[in-house]
Design a protein that fits this description.
Layout lengths: L1 H19 L4 H12 L5 H8 L7 H28 L24 H15 L3 E2 L5 E3 H4 L19 E3 L2 E3 L5 H9 L4 E10 L11 E12 L3 H16 L5 E8 L2 E10 L18 E10 L1 H6 L7 E9 H9 L12 H8 L2
Parallel strand pairs: 1-5
Antiparallel strand pairs: 2-4, 3-4, 5-6, 6-10, 7-8, 8-9, 9-10
The structure holds phenylalanine.
Phenylalanine (PHE) binds next to strand 9 and strand 10.
Length: 344
């Protein structure tokens, strides 16, 4: 029995010595196995040895081994807690080592493209503004000359939020907000998201981006609109493209036009062209001279001032520039797609 007691003491010392040298989780786990492993742990083997003792000695010895076992378990748990909360102090850490590399984010391709558009207009002396995506009926329609039940509203159906509020269907309401606030000369572009009731397909989304352009001054004519758009589109899409104006209708411009550009992919020679469908032209934007009634709505004298405006679809133009057949890819967040743009 004496012999047994001293063996327990020896084992306790051995454990304490080993624990002092434990500095990481792995060493701690090894020590736990060495003492407590169910098959070969020192303490487990001790319990087996109890069988060799007399029935009187056995409970006393058993108590000793059990106490040691509890001591070992508690010490291991305490040390584990200390390791987990250990702080690397500066004198132990090598601060000259390179840090962990985090992946860089990058602007979305549509944002990069929008920035290119903005830069072209900034260089021509335009300013940039942004406006609310939730608009009132007044700004989205009425002030732009859409009377309450006018059929022109049909092609701009949207989500109504009650209380006269709706998701704006175009960036044109910002024409009104800008002209209410600033007096001519006005030269401004307004990029932003717009919403329409659309079934999703390769060329339609219920949310997309537009850039609105507005210029108001004395003596402004359609020629200025044409010259500005031609410069803008050639700078953005290349010198080779041609531009054509087709008569159209918008309640807030008079005269109005749809502006098409020649197809850079097939030049009208491929009847199955994925970009222009064989027509040789691609419609990019709506434009026109600001309707005198719209000027009156914001107290600008149409006898003295005239202006032009346009609204361009950003995705549509980016699809043309990068020859992308399906607009949805811009919003799928597939890094294999988006990374191609930010690497430039
Ligand atoms: N707001 C029109 C649209 O979304 C485009 C447009 C803007 C037309 C400015 C003329 C002038 O279709």
């Amino acid at each position: 029995m004496k012999n047994f007691e001293s063996r327990v003491d020896e084992l306790r010392k051995k454990f304490e010595g080993a624990l002092a040298g434990v500095n990481d989780d792995r060493a701690l786990e090894d020590l736990r196995n060495e003492f407590l492993s169910r098959k070969r742990g020192h303490l487990t083997l001790f319990f087996d040895d109890l069988k060799a003792l007399t029935p009187e000695e056995r409970p006393v010895a058993g108590k000793l081994v059990n106490e040691l076992k509890i001591q070992v378990q508690e010490a291991l748990t305490t040390r584990q807690g200390k390791l987990a909360t250990r702080v690397v102090t500066p004198d132990k850490a090598d601060l000259t080592l390179p840090g962990e590399k985090l992946p860089w984010g990058a602007p979305h391709p549509l944002m990069l493209f929008q920035e290119e558009i903005e830069n072209i207009f900034l260089a021509m002396g335009f300013s940039i503004a942004e406006g609310p995506e939730i608009e009132t009926d007044y700004y989205n329609f009425e002030a732009l000359n859409f009377p309450p039940h006018h059929p022109a509203r049909d092609s701009w159906d949207t989500l109504y939020l009650g209380d006269d509020l709706l998701l704006r269907t175009h960036t044109s309401p910002m024409q009104i907000r800008v002209m209410e606030k600033f007096k001519p000369p006005i030269r401004i572009i307004i990029p932003g998201k717009v919403y329409r009731r659309e079934a999703i397909d390769p060329t339609h989304l219920p949310m997309f981006c537009q850039v609105e352009g507005l210029l108001v001054d004395e003596g402004v004519t359609l020629a200025h609109l044409k010259g500005t758009l031609e410069h803008f589109l050639k700078t953005l899409l290349g010198d080779k493209i041609e531009i054509r104006f087709r008569p159209s209708f918008f309640p807030f411009t008079e005269p109005s036009a749809e502006v098409d550009i020649s197809c850079i992919l097939c030049r009208g020679k491929d009847p199955a062209c994925p970009i222009c469908g064989g027509t040789g032209w691609k419609e990019l934007l709506g434009a026109g001279m600001v309707d005198p009634q719209v000027l009156k709505n914001v107290n600008i004298d149409p006898e003295r001032y005239s202006g032009w405006a346009f609204g361009l679809g950003i995705e549509r133009t980016a699809m043309f520039r990068y020859q992308i057949a399906d607009m949805r890819i811009f919003y799928e967040n597939d890094l294999r797609f988006t990374r191609q743009f930010s690497l430039k």
